[in-house]
Amino acid sequence: MARGLRNRQPSSDPTRFVNRTGPDAAQRRRARQAATRRPTAGNEPARARHEERYPAWRDLSDSNFHEAGGQKERWTLVDAIPTFRMAAAIVVLGLVSTLYVGHVLATQDLMARAESLRRENLALHLRANRVKGEFDRASGPQVIHERARALGLSQRTPNGPSLEID
User: Fold this and answer.
1) Cα Rg of the chain (Å, integer)
2) Nearest alpha carbon to residue 36 among 23, 51, 18
3) 161 belongs to a structural domain
4) How does pLDDT run across 101-122, given as a tens digit for each residue?
5) Cα–Cα distance between 59 and 38 in angstroms, integer?
6) What is the pLDDT of residues 31-53, one digit of tens each?
7) pTM of the predicted model, to two decimals?
8) Are residues 36 and 30 in contact, defined by beta-carbon separation less than 8 angstroms?
């Protein structure tokens, strides 16, 4: 007899164990499998050899606690959440992640557009500076004096000494 089964109180169901986790859980599972295992020939199909590994209905019950012998087994959070709520949570999580990915892609597109507009703005500023420089050179005093001389105009000389007022 296995170590975990020695001090166990007899019950109506010899294959039911209350605590499915803990140090002796693996020994209890092996003992239960050995007790329910039937001899198999090597030529039987694999399904027949592994049928005893599927869980029973009592293992899949909806209650959060199993009581027997004064012990309670607490199930995990995933076991306690109903299927509809779990499906709704998965759908909401999928929607949120889809919205997040869409937001990231839209932000990347917006940043690419802003960068192209920034480059276009810089090119227009450089062109405006170049045109302004050409205009300044074309309308500068040196060019105006040269054109005036070409037309036959001369530079005016001062008429006399400058006046000083006391």
Assistant:
1) 47
2) 51
3) no
4) 999 999 999 999 999 999 999 9
5) 21
6) 777 766 655 555 555 555 555 66
7) 0.39
8) no
Tell me, yes or no, whether 70 and 20 share the same domain: yes
Q: Are residues 8 and 64 in the same domain?
A: yes
Q: How many Cα atoms occupy the beta-carbon half-sphere of 49 within 13 Å?
A: 7
Residue 157 covered by a domain: no
Query: What domain range is 27 assigned to?
Result: 3-76
CA dihedral 36, 39, 42, 43 (to 10 degrees): -90
C-alpha span between 57 and 160 (Å, rounded): 124
Specify the number of domains making up the chain. 2
Do 97 and 60 sit in the same domain of this protein?
Answer: no
In 34-124, the DSSP E strands lie at: 65-68, 71-74
Helices (H) and strands (E) in the chain, counts: 5, 2
Distance of CA 85 to the CA centre of its chain: 22
- Domain membership flag for residue 163: no
Tell whether 7 and 71 lie within a shared domain.
yes
For CA atoms 160, 164, 165, 166, give the dihedral sign.
negative
Q: Are residues 71 and 88 in the same domain?
A: no
11-33 burial, b for 16+ CB within 10 Å, e for fewer? Answer: eeeeeebbbeeeebeeebeebbe
